[in-house]
Design brief:
Blueprint lengths: L1 H15 L5 H17 L1 H17 L4 H7 L3 H16 L7 E6 L5 E5 L6 E4 L4 H13 L4 E4 L5 H17 L7 E3 L6 H9 L4
Parallel strand pairs: 3-4, 4-5
Antiparallel strand pairs: 1-2
Length: about 200
């Protein structure tokens, strides 16, 4: 587990070095939408695996409802990503600039935060929303979704990686922790500080 998580961190850190234009980022997100819409039946099939397991484990009905992905929810995911595409690129925006008496020009600019880790429950739509938001803001992300939505999250991440690959961009901008071991969360929060 230790080496696996450290590799995710190292790969994310390398991806952080990419300086992508707003146009390139939006192209990836548009390709991601197309992949989602063109793979609706496969997404639903993966989601059915999660639903079957949730029902077997007697998950509460409200949690199963959150977990469900159908054509309507997939359409909402696509619309959410479209909104993110419409956001002004938050990277390299000059917030303030001034000139010192000695002629030195100073600017206060927005920059990405760095590698972000997201831990979330059984809402597979969070996978695509967070991946899109982090990518748009120039921050590689390591996703740790709830085990209830394992197959759905894994497939949505796989589609995002395909969109990155299609555009010849490091696929490690978006990474998904495939381990269901709860100890990964503790390790992520306490031992991954260098990443």
């Amino acid at each position: 587990m230790k080496n696996y998580l450290f590799n995710l961190g190292k790969n994310a850190k390398k991806a952080f070095l990419d300086n992508l234009s707003s146009k390139k980022k939006n192209k990836v997100l548009k390709d991601y939408i197309n992949l989602i819409l063109n793979n609706q039946s496969k997404i639903i099939l993966e989601n059915q695996k999660d639903l079957k397991k949730a029902k077997k484990n007697n998950l509460k009905e409200n949690l199963i409802k959150r977990l469900l992905l159908d054509k309507k929810k997939i359409s909402q995911i696509a619309n959410s990503i479209k909104k993110i595409i419409g956001f002004k690129d938050p990277v390299d925006r000059v917030l303030k600039s001034w000139k010192r008496p000695n002629g030195l020009k100073i600017q206060k600019k927005t920059i990405p935060i760095g590698v972000i880790a997201i831990i979330y429950e059984s809402r597979p739509n969070v996978t695509s929303d967070v991946a899109a938001l982090c990518f748009k803001s120039g921050n590689p992300v390591i996703l740790k979704g709830g085990s209830e939505a394992y197959y759905s999250n894994k497939f949505l991440t796989k589609l995002f990686k395909k969109a990155l690959q299609k555009n010849k961009i490091n696929i490690n901008h978006i990474q998904f922790i495939e381990s269901k071991n709860r100890k990964t969360v503790d390790f992520l929060l306490t031992k991954m500080i260098n990443y």
